[in-house]
Write a structure and sequence with these properties.
By secondary structure, this protein is mainly alpha-helical. It is about 80% helix and about 0% strand. It has helices spanning about 1-25, 30-40, 55-70, 75-80, 80-105, 110-120, 125-135, 140-170, 175-205, 210-230, 235-250, 255-290, 295-325, 340-350, 355-365, 380-395, 400-405, 415-440, 450-465, 480-505, 505-525.
């Protein structure tokens, strides 16, 4: 075990270094890290396979999915909840059946094992999809659908895999048993996710100790995942729901210092975990191919392209058919031209990269049956999964050019941000005027030079939205300056959330501005009564 942990640490350092270099070059992380992992896997170093797939599910998958949920927007996903749920449930079931059917047609797999392969490859990868979608400048609505689907479909697919594995081991399974397993997994996952999210939200809104609150958030995904799985629920679903709940709470109720600490912490955590996950996929791809027989390699070579083609046809056909039938009835797409809807549907259908969760799901298939015999075709399922991951990640690099060719890209949001900045500056100016009036009524007028400087700053943002030039504000009264500036920043924060809620601004626009306001407020230092 010590040897394994030692190599794990070495691989972690290598993965992070490669990810940093890829980031520096402006590339996506997934493919470069995976390729280097494949190269490392060619050399006879390190352990052959993971000692326990469950360790990776808990140590990497749980915090990684939680971090992705924290970086997503509950409000954005809620606005596109119908297409997200249809894709996360309906498309997962359709993919499981079509891929399973193709596997049955090509090989002699038992039905349950073929369906297990379909379930393993049903979920899209949140990291790869989000990275490529943003890099391709897809419209925010499409990005929200892709992110929401890739978060929610993990739980659906892993539940389908659980049913398939139970059927493979038992030899048969009834419709009642399938329904019981599925409903229990979803219900328990949702219940634990909501309970965990509420508890984290309560701590975030009440605790003044931001370090303690964020420490609790850091360990939460492990507890939630294990708790849900122990109760036969979906650990991934519990983690996703709790993450979205917590992210929304941090935005609306959290303290500015806590938000800053959480954003920085999880940005680093998810970066390291993403790098590790893709690196291990590359290493185990080679190890898995070396573990199968020559006959099984031929089967894998036939399965990979067939399954990839099946995944693409199923996804594109499902999404475009869904939009063609129900597109104009969905509030998300109401009022848009049919041609634009279909182009967007094609991009959503094409954006189906698979990633580490499929690899981890394949590894979670048991080695042995209850009779003590090896699980049939397990090595083939694992090897096929890894091959499909590599091919779909390569295909994902074409999303940007295709989106540009089809003219399915986000319009420039700079004007929206400029108008929002002006509205926030106006709110700050209003707060300054009110503070000046209160001071006058209390017989403690504020120095005119101080008020004039702060008013000029806010007015300049309203008029031209450019940095102030000329003389700096007189800070001869630093306490009054910080107090007034803090009031103005707080007014901007409240106005930002009001505009978001009333006008439906996406959190992709709101959160960077909120973090900038948090940093401004933090730079002003603590209040007089704070230590």
């Amino acid at each position: 075990m010590e040897t394994y942990l030692g190599w794990f640490a070495v691989f972690a350092v290598m993965a992070v270094v490669v990810a940093i270099l890829a980031r520096h070059r402006g590339w996506g992380m997934a493919l470069p890290v995976l390729i280097v992992g494949v190269i490392v896997g060619l050399f006879p170093i390190g352990p052959d396979l993971a000692p326990d797939p469950e360790v990776f599910l808990i140590a990497i998958l749980a915090p990684l999915v939680f971090g992705e949920a924290l970086g997503s927007s509950f409000l954005d996903i809620r606005r596109v909840r119908r297409p997200v749920l249809v894709l996360a449930i309906g498309l997962v079931i359709a993919t499981t059946l079509t891929v399973g059917g193709m596997a049955l047609w090509i090989s002699a797999m038992p039905v349950a094992v073929a369906l297990a392969l379909g379930a393993v490859l049903a979920p899209t990868d949140a990291v790869a999809v989000s990275t490529v979608a943003r890099k391709a400048s897809l419209p925010r609505g499409l990005v929200s659908i892709l992110e929401g689907e890739s978060l929610v479909n993990d739980g659906t697919a892993l539940t389908a895999l659980r049913v398939a594995v139970v059927a493979a081991i038992a030899g048969s399974i009834t419709a009642v048993q399938i329904g019981t397993v599925f409903i229990l997994a979803v219900a328990v996952g949702i219940a634990i996710g909501l309970a965990g999210g509420w508890l984290l939200s309560f701590v975030i809104s009440r605790s003044k100790d931001t370090v303690a609150a964020n420490s609790l958030v850091l360990v939460a995904p492990f507890v939630l995942y294990l708790g849900a799985e122990r109760l036969e629920g979906s650990g991934v679903l519990a983690v996703v729901i709790a993450g979205l709940y917590t992210a929304h709470s941090q935005t609306t109720k959290g303290r500015n210092l806590g938000r800053l600490q959480s954003a920085m912490l999880w940005r680093h955590v998810t970066f390291v975990l993403q790098a590790m996950a893709f690196f291990m996929v590359g290493i185990y791809l080679i190890n898995t191919l070396l573990a199968v027989t020559n006959q099984e390699r031929l089967l894998v070579a036939a399965l990979v392209p067939t399954v990839v083609l099946t995944l693409i046809i199923t996804r594109v056909g499902f999404v475009m058919g869904l939009v063609a039938i129900f597109g104009r009835r969905m509030p998300t797409f109401r009022g848009q031209p049919t041609t634009r809807l279909m182009r967007g549907a094609f991009i959503v259908g094409w954006s189906g990269a698979r990633g580490p969760i499929s690899a981890l799901a394949a590894f979670s298939i048991p080695l042995m049956m209850e009779s003590g015999e090896p699980f049939p075709f397990r090595d083939v399922v694992v090897a096929t999964t890894f091959g499909v991951i590599v091919v779909t990640l390569l295909l994902a690099q074409t999303i940007g050019p295709i989106a540009r060719r089809l003219k399915v890209q986000e319009s420039d949001a700079s004007e929206t941000i400029r108008k929002l900045d002006a509205a926030l500056a106006y709110a700050a100016l209003t707060e300054l005027d009110e503070a000046e009036e209160v001071a006058e009524l209390n017989g403690q007028p504020i120095a005119r030079e101080l008020v004039a400087g702060l008013r000029a700053e806010a007015q300049r943002r309203i008029d031209s939205l450019v940095p102030i030039e000329g003389e700096a504000v007189d800070l001869s009264d630093p306490v009054s300056t910080s107090d007034l500036a803090r009031l103005m920043v707080r007014a901007e924060q409240e106005e930002l959330l009001r505009i978001r809620d009333e006008e439906g601004l996406p959190d992709s626009v709101v959160r960077p501005i909120q973090l900038a306001l948090d940093m401004r407020q933090q730079a002003l230092g603590p209040r007089k009564n704070e230590t």
